[in-house]
């Protein structure tokens, strides 16, 4: 769940891992963009951007991004859902499928990417590894409104206990 405080380019989640970069965020025009870039010799970039714009700073958006490297195309491999609806997107890939170490494996930056901080709210953030899930695992439509619910599944890969960790959000 996210609620933007301002419009313009904003990264909700970003990471850097050696020669790998990735982010989920809003473009300057208000579209949701997902980037997966892996450099080993030459850089290979997978990118998906919604055709719909999301500029309402009064609304909470429930965003689910799924990444499936076994899909037959980048448009099937990157899926972006907003408030339970699969979004039409323009997708491109230098190489597909990209079989590497994975996506979002390094230093996670919640509320920023590179040098840009996110100006807004983020709640109920999940990273599920090893599964390609739909929004219905995290939210449901009740009386015509899309609302959060407890995660309805399991994570099959390594789980990390972060109860004693400290986080530096947005910086």
Strand count, sense and closure of the main sheet?
A: 6 strands, antiparallel
Strand content: 35-45%
Mean pLDDT across all amino acids: 80
- The total beta strand count reads 15
Structural class: mainly beta
Give the termini separation.
20 Å
Number of helices: 1
What this model shows, in words?
By secondary structure, the protein is an all-beta fold. Helices cover 2% and strands 44% of the residues. It has one helix at 74-77, and strands at 2-4, 10-17, 20-26, 31-40, 42-53, 63-67, 78-82, 85-86, 89-93, 107-110, 112-113, 116-117, 120-122, 139-142, 145-148. The protein is globular, with a radius of gyration of 16 Å. The model is unreliable at 157-171 (pLDDT under 50).
In terms of topology, how is this protein built?
Layout: E1 2-4, E2 10-17, E3 20-26, E4 31-40, E5 42-53, E6 63-67, H1 74-77, E7 78-82, E8 85-86, E9 89-93, E10 107-110, E11 112-113, E12 116-117, E13 120-122, E14 139-142, E15 145-148
Short description:
This protein has about 170 residues and is mainly β. The protein has one helix and 15 strands.
Features:
disordered C terminus; 171 residues; 1 helix; three-stranded antiparallel β-sheet; mainly beta; six-stranded antiparallel β-sheet
């Amino acid at each position: 769940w996210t609620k933007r405080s301002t419009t313009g380019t904003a990264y909700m989640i970003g990471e850097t891992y050696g020669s790998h970069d990735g982010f989920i965020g809003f473009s300057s025009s208000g579209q949701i963009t997902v980037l997966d870039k892996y450099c080993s010799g030459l850089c290979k970039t997978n990118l998906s951007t919604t055709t719909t714009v999301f500029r309402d700073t009064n609304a909470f958006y429930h965003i689910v991004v799924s990444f499936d490297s076994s899909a037959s195309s980048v448009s099937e491999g990157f899926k972006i859902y907003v408030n339970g609806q699969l979004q039409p997107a323009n997708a491109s890939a230098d190489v597909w499928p990209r079989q590497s170490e994975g996506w979002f494996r390094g230093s996670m930056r919640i509320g920023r990417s590179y040098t840009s901080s996110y100006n807004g709210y983020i709640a109920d953030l999940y990273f599920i590894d090893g599964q390609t899930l739909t929004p219905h695992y995290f939210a449901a439509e009740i009386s015509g409104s899309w609302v959060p619910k407890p995660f309805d599944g399991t994570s099959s890969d390594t789980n990390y206990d972060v109860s004693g960790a400290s986080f530096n959000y947005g910086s």
